[in-house]
Structure formats: structure tokens, C-alpha cells
Amino acid sequence: MASRDIKFLVKDLKKATIEGARTACVKIMNDLVKAGPAYSGDFSASWYALAPGKAAGGPRSSTGLYNYTLRNVPKTKFKEAGLYTIVNTSSYANEALDLVPYSRPTEELEERKNLGKNIDVGGRSPGNTRGQITGDGGATSSAPADWWSTFGVGGGLDKSLKKGFIRGFLTFGKAQGFGS
């Protein structure tokens, strides 16, 4: 069994907490990808964990559901104290989160129909939210009408945070010689 001197405790706890927070961010973002809409992959690739006062990076390339890793949440961003925010930077994030009514231009809707991509097309017309799909039934939604609120207040966020933090904290502890 490896051991560490007690004089390293505060420093080690700080590092373990940072690893826990980073891993929790990765878990939350991956769970948001699973819960949220997945039309082209742009929305799923647009989640960022931001330190206080920091801006998100540029768009990521994705052709499907994006898979976040610790590489997406660098240690250097987690050295400062404060609350961290997870944001989605896609141009249509507020629509995808159903915070505002759907407002895609008609030309874009027609273009997507012509490409055979009928997710949210032809059923969710401008001015409606995800739960207000109408029309001939040919459209489908790539996420439930209440996916965002359910994730946030229905327990998904808390579960992701807890699982991710514990996983990161314990992984750090084992690497540093804590426990058996």
C-alpha cells in the first residue's frame, strides 16, 4: 500500500476536487448529449464548461453525437475558484432547449425536407415548441418535449454531477496512493 505524508493533504484534496469537478463536467455534458436533440450533431458538440469570466471556444466538428472527454475540460480552466457554468453555444441553443419558440426560416425547413431530414421538419412549424408538433405525422422530434427541464429539475443533473464528481475524486485518490 502506498502512502502520502499528511503535509500534502490540503494540496492533494484541492487536486482531487479539481479532478472531481472536471470529471463531473464531462459526465454532465455527455448526459446532456444523450438527453437532448440530435439532428446533425452540431448541438451535441456545442457544450462547454466555463470558468468564471471565461468564454467558450469555437465550434467543434461533429457528424453525430459528440463524446466529451477530459480533453474538453482542461485542468488549466479549473484552477480558479468560483462557480463553473456549462453552456451550449450553438446558434439555435435556445430553440433546442425550448426556451424560445422555433423560428427557423422557411427556406431552411424546405432544404432539410429535400435532403430527407425530417426531424422537427414539417411538424414543428415556426412559433411552436418541441411539444407542439403538428402536421401529417411525418416529423419526429429527436428529444422529448420536456427534455431540458426534466434533466435540470427531474434529477438527471444531480445524478450526473454526483456520479462524475465521485468518479473523478476517487480516480485521483487512487493515483496518489490514498486508500487501500
Describe the structure.
It is a single chain. The chain is mainly alpha-helical. It has helices at residues 9-35, 93-96, 106-114, 147-153, 156-176; strands at residues 47-50, 85-88. The protein folds into 2 domains: 1-92 and 146-180, no CATH class; 99-144, no CATH class. The chain has 5 helices and 2 strands. A two-stranded antiparallel sheet has the order 1-2. Helix 1 (9-35) packs antiparallel against helix 5. The longest helix has 27 residues, at 9-35. The relative contact order is 0.20. Mean pLDDT is 76; it is low at 117-123.
Distance between the termini: 6 Å
Q: Percent of residues in beta strands? A: under 5%
| Rg calculated over all Cα atoms | 20 Å
- From the spread of the alpha carbons, the general shape counts as elongated
Structural class: mainly alpha
- How many H/I helical runs? 5
Largest sheet, order of strands side by side?
Answer: 1-2
Low-confidence blocks of residues: 117-123
Number of strands: 2
Q: Share of helix among residues?
A: 25-40%
